[in-house]
Amino acid sequence: MASKVAGKICWKRVCGTRSFEIPRRKIGTSVAASGAASKTQLESLGRDKPFRTTMSIEVDPYLRHLFDADPALNVYNSSIVNLSVGAPGPDLLKQCNTLLATATRHRLEEEEKEGKYYLFQYGITSGLWECREELAKFLTRRYGDPVAREDLILTCGATHGLQLILTSVMAPDGVIFVDEVTYMIALDAFKQFPLKRVVSVPMKNDVVDLDELEKLVQAERHKSYTLNENKIFWAMYYTVPTFHNPTGMTLTPDMCKRVVKMSRDNAFAVVCDDVYNLLHYNNEYPPHRLFNYDDSQDPDYTGGNIISNGSFSKILSPALRVGWIECGPRVVNILKNSGILKSGGAVNHYVSGLVASLLHLKLEDRYLDSLIETYKGRMKALCDVLDEHLPNYCSYNHPEGGYFVWIKLPEDIDALPFMEWCKQVYKVMAIPGARFSNHGESKNCIRISIAFHSAETIAKAATIMCNAITEYMRVKNVKPNLNM
């Protein structure tokens, strides 16, 4: 424990935390104290009497990666085969050593040639021009659809892009429509905006039920919202339209067109988490992204209601923290003037320079090709096992891309205790479905990821899990409904 020094913060270690004692301050000065006190408490203290409050901060342990702190998610733990995590493994990430070394040399040589060293200066608000130019070319050839540099805003990844959208163009008291099951970290992010309401939309065949979405939009649109020249959308529909997380499914072209029309007619935004689009396994090009259907040449085009939120985390490396927002002119113009971008002088400016070189030298194209082949093999290995060993009272759909397979157990089985049991008995685990629902629905579902482990490991673990389902049903004496 440190000794107390008047007027300074003192600390001590207590049960894994550091306890901070806040210095004395008089009530009525500019800051009374960190922490909250009721009006009665303040009156009992007297306005000129000092008071103290304490708060605790968990001691920062030595951790090596995002999943290190949680034993249930530590995918590097070799004692359990963890099929939960949507992140690449070391066998793929090791290739980044050579890729980034080559890109770094190229980019620094380019800086020396020019002699201005702009790469180390504050950047322009929308992000490094060369990076957006190369990114537009890269996306055009990989999507098979045109992408324009001026439609791109660089971000620190898709989560940062989502935060920008929530704070920059959406009403502070607006509505966020989400699929009944969706990306769980997005749900966590939405909870940090207590004035915004999250409304779940039912799903049908593992994709959004657009009839239900339209009903919900009509029920909400005429309420009062705080809008101005920047907060232009009263609501947003957050979705993963291509290779959905967690179901793996993709919206059909007709559904995409209907979503675009619905967003235009009702003046809300559609924010697409487009991080898996380029990981497609059956065709030369992936399905058209939803943004492609919001055509500026349409007579009813309203300046862009669809926002595509992309990232290099799934197609290169999570650590780069570089992503992009692709959007229409009215959203682009607002984002360019947002406080965090305008004051920050671009995001991840130096790393954007390295990404520009990776794209210019076609290094990312070659790496992405290898990722597609690798993940395609892993997806096939998993689905082959499920086709052969998954009990017939369970079901799943075979995705054509992305990271995830969504398994449905009998409706009266809760996947949470099953996965706990499977982890303890068979040393295999995945994420229960309720984690992806705003209301804790889909309790009988499991999401499996193909991202981290080899095809052989995935196949072995999936076989064990299928057998575990049968054993768990026997142990729990559950009679499956074969008509499901």
From TrEMBL:
InterPro entries: Aminotransferase_I/II_large (IPR004839), PyrdxlP-dep_Trfase (IPR015424), PyrdxlP-dep_Trfase_major (IPR015421), PyrdxlP-dep_Trfase_small (IPR015422). It holds the Pfam family Aminotran_1_2. Residues 113-462 form the Aminotransferase class I/classII large domain. This is Aminotransferase class I/classII large domain-containing protein. It comes from Trichogramma kaykai.
